[in-house]
Design brief:
The protein is α/β, with parallel strands linked by helices and about 375 residues long. The chain contains 12 helices and 15 strands. Strand 11 and strand 12 form a beta hairpin. The strands form 3 sheets. Strands 7-6-8-9-10-14-15 form a 7-stranded mixed beta sheet, with helices on both faces. It has a 5-stranded parallel beta sheet with strand order 2-1-3-4-5. A 3-stranded antiparallel beta sheet has the order 11-12-13. The termini are far apart.
């Protein structure tokens, strides 16, 4: 009797074990890695929210390959010392990785996903090196050089100014990379760089005020400052308060200035501000996305959320094309993917895993983001 009882217990355990395994295989799992707390959490949170909205939409339309989709997320706090630990908590339990968010941490993650042969898309890491020689790493966003070069073209071709100031944060890879690309292209176009200063530190009022004084004294006809929107809003307010009304130019980090200014109710500092971006809020498909995002999260999305949404949808399309979640097959399908109608445009990847897509130049005008023009890059 005891032997029979033991056999029954063992069979029951086996049934539970295999039943759980089967249930798990019925879901496709995305890992979402980024800073969900700390100084960079505003960007990581936007990425996670955009990715989750995409997963909601996929599940509402039957999932992927007939399976429902779920997500696991890990917070690395934006700390390079913690990012691989967070990554390792995800890696054995996911089919695809969305992340990391920042360029420096994405560099670390890219090395690891290539070693582990796990397909990944970073929505927002713009540093040139992130995807180089890493066949499993892709990105949804433009590169730093693309943004800097495009904004230099815009300065010359559309604004038709000849004297420009460049201010940036030398300690930030994103800011430094975009500024360097802008400077090189501006010089090639014959623009005069009347000020080039890397001392613009995030949330450092003294440094910012000192640079505003330098900008005013330089007689620059426009200023290019590739920084993130929280600091860009402060820079715009400071410049306008000091009577500098010439164009303020930036890159995709400027998407969110209006949100930052919303607490004051005064959006005029953002007038005559232009920036490269992955989409424009006035586009019809973005309006629908913004409505759904606002209904779910109670706020307007930024480009980080839209890029994450497209990253998940591109991964889903690759799995459907591959008819599999096999990581090598999904990677190959991504390389051949032609993604149409995305929030951030039609996208396909070059041999490096970087997107070929349209870049928008957006303008803030009386509290609205409007499309100024498009470039194909």
């Amino acid at each position: 009797m005891k032997k029979l009882l033991c056999l029954i217990v063992m069979l029951a355990c086996a049934f539970v074990f295999f039943g759980c395994t089967q249930n798990e295989s019925d879901a496709i799992t995305f890992g979402i890695l980024g800073p969900f707390s700390g100084n960079l959490s505003v960007y990581g949170t936007s990425v996670r929210e955009g990715a989750m909205l995409a997963i909601d939409d996929l599940n509402a339309n039957g999932g992927i390959l007939g399976k429902q989709v779920k997500a696991l997320s890990e917070d690395d706090e934006g700390d390079p010392k913690k990012v691989l630990s967070a990554y390792n908590k995800l890696i054995d339990n996911i089919d695809f990785l969305i992340g990391e968010v920042t360029s420096g941490n994405s560099e670390l993650v890219a090395t690891q996903v290539n070693k582990d042969k796990v397909p990944a898309i970073t929505p927002s890491a713009t540093a040139d090196s992130v995807t180089k020689n890493r066949e499993y790493m892709f990105r949804a966003c433009f590169l730093d050089p693309t943004q800097g070069e495009t904004m230099a073209d815009f300065t010359n071709d559309t604004l038709k100014v000849k004297k420009v100031a460049i201010v940036y944060d030398l300690s930030d890879d994103y800011s430094k990379g975009v500024a360097s690309a802008y400077e090189e292209k501006a010089k090639a176009l014959g623009l005069e760089i009347v000020l080039n200063d890397g001392g613009l530190r995030a949330k450092d009022n003294d440094q910012r005020n000192a640079l505003i004084a330098k900008i005013k004294g330089s007689n620059a006809e426009a200023v290019f400052a590739p920084i993130y929107y929280e600091d860009a809003a402060l820079l715009a307010k400071g410049l306008r308060q000091e009577g500098y009304t010439a164009p303020l130019l930036g890159a995709d980090g400027y998407d969110g200035i209006l949100r930052q200014l919303s607490g004051t109710g005064d959006y005029t500092p953002a007038n005559n501000v232009f920036f490269s971006n992955h989409y424009c809020a006035s586009d019809e498909n973005i309006k629908e996305f913004s409505k759904k995002y606002n209904e779910k999260y109670g706020k307007e999305p930024t480009s980080f959320a839209a890029l994450a949404y497209d990253a998940v949808m591109m991964a889903a399309k690759a799995m459907e094309n591959a008819k599999s979640t096999d990581k090598a097959l999904v990677k190959d399908a991504l390389q051949k993917l032609e993604y149409k109608g995305g929030l951030t445009g039609d996208i396909k990847f070059n041999e490096q895993g970087d997107p070929i897509k349209t870049i928008c130049i957006c303008e803030y005008k009386d509290g609205e983001m409007v499309l100024k023009q498009r470039y194909v890059k």
